Amino acid sequence: MEVVLKRTYYPGGTNGELFLFGIRVCYTIELPWKDNRRRISCIPEGKYELQKRYTQRFGHHFLLLNVPGRDYILLHAANDAMKEMFGCIAPVSALTGEGKGSQSRIALGKLVKLLYPEMEKGKVWIVVEAGVVSGALRRAQGDR
Fold first, then answer.
1. Three-state SS for 70?
2. Which of 16, 29, 28, 3 is closest to 114 using CA atoms?
3. Range of the domain at 63
4. Whole-angstrom Cα distance, residue 49 to residue 30?
5. Are 80 and 96 in contact, with CB atoms under 8 Å apart?
6. What CATH number does the domain containing 37 carry?
7. In what order do the strands lie in the sheet with 13-20?
8. Tally of structural domains, the chain
């Protein structure tokens, strides 16, 4: 099974939409693209296997495997990429600006409920690609 992350890049952060079977599940936020540099850049576009992960800090979340030049890239809750993240991806319920969103824990919970059972059946992949995020992003940009 594959989920698709379509991203739009901005100087203040990367915003995206996460799709399952062509239906948007949530939005995403990440750091801006800075040549895949550790701790200050989002990861490169590509296809990565997702793995279940649990920690005290993030609860149930996901680990992306085999990211070139990076390790411990997670899909975890956060609402401000520049303040809370070091290269990971955060699902959010709404976009509020470049690399910013709201209600991330709700969006992550939705992904866990959808994807954890699928991981019991087989591998789940995330395909990260450039794209145009829907009207919510344009509205969020106008609010700056």
1. coil
2. 3
3. 2-142
4. 18
5. no
6. 2.40.440
7. 73-75, 59-64, 46-55, 124-130, 2-10, 13-20, 23-30, 90-92
8. 1
What is the number of residues in the chain? Answer: 144
80, two tokens: 């401000």
Question: For 15, how many CA atoms within 13 A lie in the half-sphere containing its CB?
Answer: 27
What stretches of the chain adopt beta strand conformation (E)? 2-10, 13-20, 23-30, 46-55, 59-64, 73-75, 90-92, 94-97, 100-102, 124-130
Give the CA angle between residues 114, 118, 124 to the nearest 5°: 100
Which pLDDT tens digit goes with each residue over 58-114?
A: 999 999 999 999 999 999 999 999 999 999 999 999 999 999 999 999 999 999 999
Structure confidence by residue, pLDDT tens digits, 13-66: 999 999 999 999 999 999 999 999 999 999 999 999 999 999 999 999 999 999
How remote is the C-alpha of 120 from its chain's centroid? 21
Global confidence as pTM: 0.91
